Amino acid sequence: MGQLLSVNVGVVRPVQIQGREVLTGYAKQPAPGSVAVRMLGLEGDEQADLSVHGGLEKAVYAYPQEHYRFWSTVKAQAGQGAWNQELPPGSLGENLTISGLLEAGAWVGDLLRFPGCTLAVSAPRFPCFKFEAAMGFRQASKMMAQSGYCGFYLAVREPGQIRAGESFDLVPGPREVSIAELFSARMRRGR
Predict the structure, then answer these.
(1) Residue 43 neighbours by CB under 8 Å, 6+ apart
(2) Checking phi first, is residue 35 left (phi over 0); if not, alpha (psi -120 to 50) or beta?
(3) Is the pLDDT reported for residue 191 higher than 70?
(4) What is the C-alpha to C-alpha distance for residues 25 and 23, in angstroms, rounded to an integer?
(5) How far is 17 from 85, CA to CA, in rounded Å?
(6) Rounded-to-integer distance, Cα 181 and Cα 107, Å
(7) Buried-most residue among 21, 66, 72, 106 (CB within 10 A)?
(8) Sequence spans of domains, the chain
(9) Which three-class secondary structure state does DSSP give residue 105?
(10) Measured between alpha carbons, how far is residue 137 from residues 16, 37, 97, 140 in Å?
């Protein structure tokens, strides 16, 4: 059984990255109370680049809180944060900050059953220049590739409601390929 620590949403906004203006929905903030889960994502959440984020198979992005300490330390080493500074939920651009389920234990087709909805593990998240900009240093993508701390996308199988503090049950799917295996294979072949 896993735990949902935070439900995070954000709207698309323009930001300056490497001297140019780009649209991003990366800045996610914890949502108070219950949030509607629809087939294309969470109510109040937007994605800027639907070629890599969003859609039916990448409607919701989950990230394990267990990796937050790693990113806090890496950011401090890069001069982008204070030592022992805790990152707020949503810092990795995730909709769901979870605990109790890491990439090696998440397999494509596994179901996450929450009290008010059911989500299916669908794909790993791959780092991009927007991730690097949000983290504040150029080696962030390389660090994600080396660590395997990518999180995973979820498809909505049963829409409904979701709220921070809920537990979820993991219902195994076919168990043919894990998120960790998919992520590692793609990183080895150069994305």
Answers:
(1) 9, 35, 36, 37
(2) beta
(3) no
(4) 7
(5) 24
(6) 9
(7) 106
(8) 2-188
(9) helix
(10) 14, 33, 22, 6
- Condensed to tens digits (0 to 9), the pLDDT of residues 10-19 reads 999 999 988 9
Segment 37-56 mean pLDDT: 91
Write the CA distances from 184 to 52, 73, 148, 160, 174, integer angstroms: 18, 22, 7, 33, 20
CATH topology of domain 2-188: M1 Pyruvate Kinase; Domain 3 (2.40.33)
46, with CB counted inside 10 A (0-12, 13-18, 19+), is: middle
Distance CA 172, CA 119 (A): 12
Buried/exposed code over 29-42 (b: 16+ C-beta within 10 A; e: otherwise) = eebeeebebeebbb
3-class secondary structure, 35: strand
Which helix H or strand E contains 185, and what residues bound it? helix 179-188
- List, for residues 73-106, the tens digit of each pLDDT value: 999 999 988 888 899 999 999 999 999 999 999 9
